Amino acid sequence: MLRRSYMAQANILKKATKKKKAIPKRPKTGLKAVPLDRGFSQCHWHFYEEIDKKDIEKLCKDYVKAIFSKDDAAAILANSEYHFYMYSGRAAAIFWMNHGLEFEGKWYEYPERVYQEYEALIEPGKAILAEKKAEADRKAKTKTYSPQELLRMKVNDTVGYEIDYLEDEWIEGKKTDTDLYTLFQKHGLKGAAAPHLKPRIEFMRDEYAAAYNKTDDCAVEGYSYLTKKELKRRLDVTERMLGDLDKIQAASKATRKKRTPKVRTADKQIKALKFLKDDNDYKLVSVDPISVPGTYRLYTFNVKTRELTEYVTTSTNGFEIKGTTIQNFDKDKSRKTRLRKPDDFLPIVLKKTPNQIDKEWKKLTTKTTEPTGRINADTILMRVENK
Predict the structure, then answer these.
(1) What is the pLDDT of residue 6?
(2) Rounded average pLDDT over 85-102
(3) Long-range contacts of 18-23 (CB under 8 A, 24+ apart)
(4) Statement: residue 18 has pLDDT above 90
(5) How far is CA 367 from CA 307, 337, 363, in A?
(6) This prediction's pTM
(7) Domains of the chain, residue spans
């Protein structure tokens, strides 16, 4: 690299530096307060004592970008940050050059020294950039596999390899067999791995079957070197392997851990429930809806339609509520009817036992139908029972 002279550097920095308007009073802090009329030694001292780290860093990086080529500057700037803020003398020299001032006495070598110190960072910086590029390339080449792809690869590398070995033995004339059920256990494979191997075994089975039954001329010609007895033996082996795969899948289903349904708490179940808290005409008050989930019998009365409903459940969990609907009720044992004289029958529902209510219900002449489970804003929750 041809080193630029100090004056050439100064000219470049002058062009890169925008002229600032003169101000009447000298600032007391920052770069504007740097003395330019008392020699470089005072400028150097001011940078050491007064100038912020961020200003030093900016001066040094701007110098590198202005003096060096684009590639060399990128390499220099790839080095650790401390190279650009730790040395206040470099920044002072750059600042002095920016103003086209002369370096006196022992400071005369500073422009050349600053250039050399940053020039020495080019090769280390290139190495850093090369390593970063290599790392980026490694990450780009690293493929992420899905769980199914990983399982397929494992099947191919384990049981698939065993099948390859088996076919090699058959080519050599050996009458060997294999036990896929045992191989799956050996390699820790579950039923989910079976579909990755099944098409291959089915293809082998179909080829031997076509040759044995003479249903495909290509298969007959391809396996013409085998006796009918050997074709039958290989066909039986592949059939057994397919049977093993079916057993493996069935065993996985049988031992698969069932997911336990998440039980919602009563307060969450009734969050969206709409019901009538009380009614002055029939003088009825609803029970607390939080008492409904988990119970086994519920009586409701719709004040608008005069429908009385009896919900009964045989579920071990009792009633559940989803939105505005009663869940888990037994449709055969639950019932509803329209009351002609609610004032006569409602007191029976409130006071009598379920058996007594049933006897009185059977005396009603209105039609009894199957309830829907829906609760609305006109429905009174009359009574809940745990039996």
Answers:
(1) 63
(2) 87
(3) none
(4) no
(5) 11, 6, 11
(6) 0.40
(7) 6-130, 147-255, 266-385
